[in-house]
Structure formats: C-alpha cells, structure tokens
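pasting for ref
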Amino acid sequence: MLQGDRVHETTSVTGTGTATLLGAVANKQSFATKYPAPTTDNLPYGMISQDPANPAWEVGYGRFTLAGTTFMRLIVTDSSNGGALVNFLAGTKDIFITIPASNMNYPEINTVTAITDSVVIAVNYAMSVPYKLTNTGKIYNYGILQIT
C-alpha cells in the first residue's frame, strides 16, 4: 500500500464519481508531486466536505491518475453514508492520504517470558504497527514495532 505524508488537495466533485483535484492545500503537497509516475496501486484516502451544513465524509481506497489529475474512488471502508460512497453535494471538499482505521492492526504479543533492555520479535508484517507486550494482563511496554 502506497502512503504519503502531507498529501492534501481540494476537489469540487459532486455525486459518487471521480474527483478532479484542484491543487494542494497551503503547506501540503499535491498528489502529482508525491506520485509523479503512473501507478496502478490503490491509495488510502479520506474526503471531507468543507460545508458545515453538509458534513459528509468518506475513507477508503482509490487511484490517482496523472492524466487530468483525477482521483477515482474505488473502495469505501467507512463513510457518513453507512460505509458506502457518499453522494457529495456541490462545494469544496478536502481529499488527502490517510490510513483507514481498518488497516490499523494491534497485534497482542503474549509469549514474552523475560523483559530486558530490548526484545526482538519476529513477525511477518508489512508495516509499522502499535503493539503491546503483555503477560497476564500487565502491560510491560508500549510503542511502535518497526518491521522490515
């Protein structure tokens, strides 16, 4: 899964279709800056309406295309429309890269027998994840387990 820090643009998309990106928000980077080469990878995104009278939002996966700088909303994991694509009304929306909560896994590791200055844990996992080292309910350590 591709990620990107501080990728944040606006769009005026209406309905449930593809969003035309209007440019980066101040002090953020555009999708085109972060992903200058064509990709067929799905990007995790969030989109929020800026209209306080219509606070619609969605989170999911989509695909950025350089041709016309558009973003196709493909898979919705959560939304203000019960987990389905939101039929956005007219107005400006923020669209940005995020990690959907459904991707946040918190593996519990219960096999540690001794706590020393460092613990090496072998896990087949493709991202950094928060973790807890537990033994009979006591938390010994909490942090980010960096897996490479």
